[in-house]
């Protein structure tokens, strides 16, 4: 406790506090801009940390991490364009609520849930690092594959309309992630002689095109449609204690889910948000309200994705294994300063661990203040004429797609997937399932190949171990249950239509 208190005082000292506040604010800004991710900003700042003290460097990067994950909710709610991939699920209910004339309330739920989820994950980070890291490091490849398979079934359940279409969208996203260099054999595949595809499709280009630019295309077609907005005040984002009490169990459950998903190396905030949202939907007594601007959907999504921040730091600190893409840059910052994450970090430099703990905690409170104080200006985005707003959005999308690899080719990829995303949405396929499947694709393939190598090519081995076996059985059960539920809904709708016709 004394070590943590000393670290907290060090983080709040005049020499370090500006890095924490500035890092959080910059993270929010980068997270809110479509096409410019927090991970990109952290990567650009990484060389600068070489000239900083280790306390300032880690404080800056951890606070940017916290700010970026939450910053994506702003455009996700106001414009239905997630600034971060992890905010995709927030668009499902956040944007409908904003379009109903309640942007302040939607942002209030999201900001409050972000703070709560972050604090719960911080408690887990401090209290459960040792035991949970031991469990995570013992996971077999097939265990991780089984968890991904569960996520795919959840994707199917989230599909708007047809569950089968949702699953097809997710599998199509995985297929799009496959072109490039075979991670096992090192051979090129599905590049069709195009050398720019040797490293596969740029993740940013695909996500920006399929989700952001496709949305702009849809809105341009309906440019004459007037978006209903209402005048909002600073107080419009405050949620009453009664309303928060109604979300109490949802807050706790979603935060725990997000924390656990974050601890699983390589899965990330997108899956944490997805799982938390789907569990909230399937366990709700009114699941039909989800997707129409339901507060429970916003709370579940934002608790889930922000709780992964603290969870993802667990394997990074305890084992030296980055829990997400952003954690890779945190790992690099530690190495730059001559520190090796893992058990030796606790033994040789416990003060560094406490600085990370303190920066993670304090930055969540700073985030809440920044988002609350600046929310009235962000809400004004809803009243900006679309002809002024769309060019700015497209400009940032082009910059984000190009800046990832400094290639014009990625801009064309972005435009191509904008057409794909636009066509999928018009045909009734889940665009969210597609982009989430694209993110999960590399994890799926890596786990499958590693598992087959260890089992001498036997697929049955996935059922022979407790974790993977239980997950696969649950996946099959959830899929069958989803199909039956949809069949019952279809029969009910058909009978109602027949009664109306009679």
From TrEMBL:
Alphabetized UniProt keyword annotations: Membrane, Transmembrane, Transmembrane helix
Protein's UniProt keywords contain Membrane: yes
Pfam families hit by this protein: TctA
Regions crossing the membrane: 20-46, 58-79, 106-132, 144-177, 197-217, 251-280, 316-340, 352-379, 385-403, 415-443, 463-483
DUF112 domain: residues covered: 19-435
Segment forming the signal sequence: none
PANTHER family: TRICARBOXYLIC TRANSPORT PROTEIN
Name of this protein: DUF112 domain-containing protein
Source species: Bosea caraganae
């Amino acid at each position: 406790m004394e070590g943590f208190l000393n670290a907290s005082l060090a983080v709040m000292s005049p020499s370090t506090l500006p890095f924490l506040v500035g890092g959080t604010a910059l993270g929010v800004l980068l997270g809110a801009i479509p096409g410019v991710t927090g991970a990109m900003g952290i990567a650009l700042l990484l060389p600068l940390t070489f000239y900083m003290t280790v306390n300032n460097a880690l404080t800056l990067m951890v606070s940017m991490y916290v700010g970026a994950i939450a910053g994506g909710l702003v455009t996700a709610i106001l414009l239905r364009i997630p600034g971060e991939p992890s905010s995709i699920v927030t668009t499902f209910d956040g944007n409908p609520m904003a379009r109903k004339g309640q942007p302040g309330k939607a942002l209030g739920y999201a900001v409050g849930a972000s703070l709560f989820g972050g604090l719960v994950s911080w408690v887990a980070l401090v209290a459960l690092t040792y035991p949970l890291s031991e469990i995570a490091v013992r996971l077999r490849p097939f265990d991780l594959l089984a968890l991904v398979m569960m996520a795919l079934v959840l994707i199917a359940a989230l599909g708007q309309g047809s569950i089968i279409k949702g699953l097809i969208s997710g599998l199509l996203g995985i297929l799009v992630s496959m072109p490039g260099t075979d991670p096992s054999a090192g051979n090129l595949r599905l590049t069709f002689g195009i050398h720019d595809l040797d490293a596969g499709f740029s993740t940013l280009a695909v996500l920006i095109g399929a989700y952001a630019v496709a949305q702009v295309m849809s809105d341009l077609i309906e440019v004459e449609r007037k978006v209903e907005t209402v005048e909002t005040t600073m107080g419009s984002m405050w949620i009453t204690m009664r309303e928060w009490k109604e979300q109490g169990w949802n807050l706790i459950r979603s935060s725990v889910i997000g924390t656990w998903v974050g601890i699983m190396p390589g899965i990330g905030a997108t899956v944490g948000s997805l799982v938390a949202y789907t569990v909230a939907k399937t366990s709700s007594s009114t699941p039909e309200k989800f997707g129409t601007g339901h507060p429970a959907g916003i709370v579940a999504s934002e608790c889930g994705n922000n709780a992964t921040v603290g969870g993802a730091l667990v394997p990074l600190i305890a084992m030296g294994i980055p829990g997400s893409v952003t954690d890779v840059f945190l790992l690099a910052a530690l190495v730059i300063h001559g520190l090796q994450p893992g058990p030796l970090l606790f033994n040789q430099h416990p003060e560094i661990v406490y600085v990370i703990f303190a920066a993670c905690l304090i930055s969540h409170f700073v985030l809440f203040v920044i988002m609350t104080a600046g929310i009235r200006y962000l809400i004004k985005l809803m009243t900006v004429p679309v002809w002024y707003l769309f060019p700015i959005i497209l400009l940032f999308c082009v910059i984000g797609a190009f800046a990832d690899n400094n290639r014009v080719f990625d801009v064309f990829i972005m435009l191509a997937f904008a057409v794909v995303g636009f066509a999928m949405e018009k045909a009734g396929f889940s665009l969210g399932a597609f982009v989430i499947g694209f993110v999960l694709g590399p994890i799926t393939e890596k786990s499958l190949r590693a598992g087959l190598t260890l089992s001498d090519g036997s697929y049955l081995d996935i059922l022979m171990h407790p974790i993977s076996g239980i997950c696969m059985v649950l996946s099959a059960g959830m899929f069958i249950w989803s199909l039956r539920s949809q069949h019952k809904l279809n029969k009910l709708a058909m009978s109602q239509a027949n009664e109306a016709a009679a």
